[in-house]
Amino acid sequence: MSYTHLLVAVDLTEECDPVIKRAMAIAGPNGAKVSLVHIVEPMAMAFGGDVPMDLSQLQQQQFDQAKERMAHLFAKYPDIKQGASHLVYGQPRQEIHHFAKEKQCDLIVVGSHGRHGLALLLGSTANDVLHGAPCDVLAVSLQKKAE
Ligand code: AMP
């Protein structure tokens, strides 16, 4: 059984390259569709709720920057069609699951840092996405290889 629609969760850093490349290698031979999703987390959420200032302008800048970076990715990977991108505000796990269900994706591809020690306590997006996922999830290892 091969996959038909892959959803790649991109954090829009240089680390998305190996994640996108792996997804395209899986999709390519089967002619599967590849969609990208990036979630802009509301700033108030990052600051833990109550923030005594107006963050709307900063939030808009953050969104515009994400839009620009997404456009760069499409220029870099022309095999991914423009229409197949999704840029939303919210919480990554929730939005990735929502989009995967809505678009009937059968594989979610995320990067994974394989955290250990204290960093584990902070959790990881890959771990978060895995729980309750509506389809298969592939965690692409982003660990640096020892020289
Ligand atoms: P992290 O656990 O935050 O270091 O992220 C690991 C992976 O989760 C990244 O390589 C992306 O695949 C995905 N990811 C993290 N943040 C986001 C985001 N805001 N939107 C979409 N995917 C994300």
Strand portion: 15-25%
Q: State the name of the first-level CATH class.
A: Alpha Beta
Q: From the coordinates shown, what is the CATH architecture?
A: 3-Layer(aba) Sandwich
Report the span from N to C terminus.
Answer: 37 Å
Shape: globular
What is the fold-level CATH name, i.e. the topology?
A: Rossmann fold
Bound molecules: adenosine monophosphate
Number of DSSP strand runs: 5
Q: Which regions contain 5 or more consecutive residues with pLDDT less than 50?
A: none
Number of domains: 1
Helix content: 25-40%
Following the backbone from N to C, one meets helices and strands in this order, namely: EHEHHEHEHHE
What is the strand arrangement across the widest sheet?
3-2-1-4-5
Largest sheet: 5 strands, parallel
Helix-strand category? alpha/beta
Number of helices: 6
Name the CATH superfamily assignment: HUPs
> Roughly what is the average pLDDT, rounded to an integer?
86
Describe the structure.
This protein has 147 residues and is of the alpha/beta class. The protein has one domain (5-141): HUPs (Rossmann fold), CATH 3.40.50.620. It has six helices and five strands, in the order βαβααβαβααβ. The protein has helices at 16-27, 43-46, 56-76, 92-102, 118-121, 125-130, and strands spanning 5-9, 33-40, 85-89, 107-112, 136-141. A five-stranded parallel β-sheet has the order 3-2-1-4-5, sandwiched between helices. α1 (16-27) links the parallel β1 (5-9) and β2 (33-40). The longest helix is centred in the middle third of the chain and has 21 residues, at 56-76. It starts with a strand and ends in a 6-residue tail after the last strand. The model has no long low-confidence stretch (mean pLDDT 86).
